[in-house]
Amino acid sequence: MTRYLLRRIAFLALTLLLASLLVFTITNLLPGDPARIMLGREAGPAALAEAREALGLDDPFPVRYVTWLGQALQGDFGTSFTTGEAIAPLVFERLGNSMRLAGLTLLIAVPLAILLGVVAALHANRWPDTLISVTSLAVVGLPEFVTGLILIQLFAFGLGWVPANASIAPGATFAEALPAMVLPAITATLVMLAYIARLTRASVAAELTRPYVRTARLKGTSHGTVLRRHVLRNALLPTVTIIAISFGWLISGLIVVENVFNYPGLGRLLTFAIDRRDLPLMQAITLAAVTVFALANLVADVTYAILDPRIRLA
Amino acid sequence: MTTPSGLHVHELDVTYSTAPGTLPTVRRATLHVPRGRTVGLVGESGSGKSTLALALLRALPENGRISHGHVTLDDVDLTRLDPEALRAIWRNQVRLVPQDPLPAMNPAQRVGSQLAEALEPEDPRKADRAAIDAVLTNVGLPDPRRIKRAYPFELSGGQQQRVMIAMALLGAPSLLVMDEPTTNLDVTTEAAILDLIRDRVRSDDTAVLYVSHSLGVIASLCDDVHVLYAGEIVESAPVEAIYERPLHPYTAGLLAAVPRLDGRGARHPLRAIPGRIPEPGARPDGCSFAPRCPIATPQCHAEVPTLTERDDGRAVACHRADEIAAGTIDPLSQADADGERTPPRPVPLLEARYVSKTYARPSLRPFSRTSRPGVHALRDVSLDVPRDATLGLVGESGSGKSTFARVLVGLEPADDGTVSLEASPVPARLKDRPRALLERLQMVFQSSDEALPPHRTVHSILARPLTRLAGIPAHEVDGHVTRLLEAVNLPPDYATRQPRALSGGERQRVAIARAFASQPDLILFDESVSGLDVSVQASVLNLLDTLQRRHRTGYLFIGHDLAVVAHLADEIAVLYLGTLLERAPTARLLAPPYHPYTEALLAAVPRPDPHAKPVRPPLEGDLPSPSDVPPGCPFATRCPRPLGPTCDDEPPPLRANAAGDHQVRCHIPLDELEAMQSPLVDARDGSA
What we know:
The structure holds two protein chains of two kinds. Chain A is built from 15 helices and no strands. Chain A is an all-alpha fold. Chain A is globular, with a radius of gyration of 24 Å. In chain B, β16 and β17 form a beta hairpin.
């Protein structure tokens, strides 16, 4: 197991290194001169040259990459072109907000999706199954901004239970931020619910036909116990991976949801950075998202290995 | 209350609802398994035997349904029980041992918990541990602690099946159903499990139903037999009676299809049952077996025979049973039977000398170059494959027999040693071999459903080697395809079909036709008939024999079943952990002196004869791992005739007889071996 873990961690480091190279290359290939973006249209040639010098833009590509990576490893992502502030604290604050939202979303989505999936699988091809798959697909078919706006209309303007604007004061605790997070989390839940539920249904239904389920039932074990002790354990293995990938997506992929609710997460910061062509900010956000994604996958692999002895002991 | 009456199945119908409609899979099945007796249920695949076994346990899959009849166990009608009462029966009275032990166990749970669940389904922690240990020891697993801690995949196939049997014995069931529990095991493991069932599982208060496709296994185990064909029981009788004189032509056909060890060493054709079982829902009018029956009359095609009890207590469903019983008609009379043949003197075509192959195993640490000890698949194997004759190669899984075939055809290069064809060396790798050489060596694999491209037609599968290797011009290809199909007894219109529309036996015939397409000098068969039912296997073996005579092709025939290999081979080589242990002409190999391993293999062959008493020296334990071969004799760890430390430490010499055609790798001299061994194969009637 230790060996397995070490190997996964080595792969993780390699993945991150490659990703950083990719991120740096792509952002450098984007059209536009960073010095001009920083100084604006009216800047003269002398000022531009000076800015290039200061930003190290005249150095060869490998040198710039190594310098950037070295600083990034020390937690220094430079300063933003647009605001002139240090990037690291800003990104970390937004990352924290995104992780809170992601956590809340998974807390709602995963149990609900698994419940729906298991119920559907147990009644495969009968009415509860059909009802669940039709409604969850219908919901996933709606774009997030539509569901988001409907929810705002209903719960914020109509009932007034939660604020329509989900902005959070910097340094707010989880409890303080909770009311603002409820609607974005529900919107995100609706997006991913159908996916996890359908996956769970498929794998529970497949597991139910396995001979070992028959063995367990023929021992006289009750239906519920068979489901709990044998089926779920094996059927939820693929779900673990999907949850990890969803977590990564929730961190960086909630661009529309965060913008609809004005939620201060990483996704909205990314739109801001892209809008302003703020290259160092874009790089830092992308790298943060990639790291979270890779770590989530590592957690999934390790959980998988703990749950499945064939991987752990092989 | 008097003695419990055991299992009664009365006029049971089972149907499956599927997309095309309702399939009647079992029809009016009636059988009785008294307490303390073992009853066999035999039939080819597709006969409905597993469906019947599951139905009487009320463990059918969701789309299966008992649509008529009753199942009573000790006078309780199982078909009328509500789910709760049924669960109590499952818990306390019945057990199933399935064909495949591994998928029947939860992969993520230790074996111990799964055993405990059989005693205490709702709270396995409360289970009586001493009882579990006792049962494990009783089924031949002497280290219960290790077994209980293991996950199913960590055990060998034989251990897995022992665990399933232990699970079945926990709680002393009154009915035990065993569904082909030995079919997927090596022949020596099978023999050990059959011993176990015979000695430990049968008891005075358990009714045992044993399901199998092999009358050989049933003979050695059961008291009574029921023969199932197309979902109907066609014959029921005590086991001796059925082997003495089968009354149904299907039973007679099944019995004649079992390859027997034949002391004469000559090949005589097996009797195959032509055709295949009709699909449920597509049964012919009249007797279901009539289309395949050699003695069918117009009455057979028109009227359904009923299972009728006869004066002698046997029951049979055949219009001509009286004639067969009186001996006035032979139920096999028209079955294909060619004359006997005398084996030609083998001339070496392909010579392998000192072939060795070790598989490196990658290190477990990342980025490390040091590797773990390799797996020795072959160690200095020298063998000649004859022209126009057959060399049989026998061994258990892990013996290296498939590796040897793969080295010969160039799929794997050997680490050491040479292969030459008619004295000229053959390049080790397939890509270095000239086309003319590829043409001359062909191979047929075990699993033709994987070796045939699923989405191409039979025509295109056969046309490829014809044009690529044999250089047949395009306009002549059609004619050649038809001739190839004819040669393997398939109708010409099969050319338009795809492999998945064919049965297993038919696919294997197509694979054989493909191998013959380039008119090779030598064909390697790697377990090519192992996956087939006995009746189909018999027809494929007959076909191979006929084709060899017609085309004068050399065969290397690899198998784990000595009886099957001996049927076809002129000469046999026995491989164990990559080492050649014995080589001799077939007749000589089947008579003492044997290598102790060959002796164990011969003793393990199930005989289709209830009088055959098992006379086997016990073969203890499992095959050692090929990465950890014992330093002396590779067989030393399991040998029933050990000499002592010599065997463990020194590699034994390859001894030859005076004529030089019989080699045995053993520390015991041949004459001493001969003196301590008794013949296991009776030359008179071809069985033990």
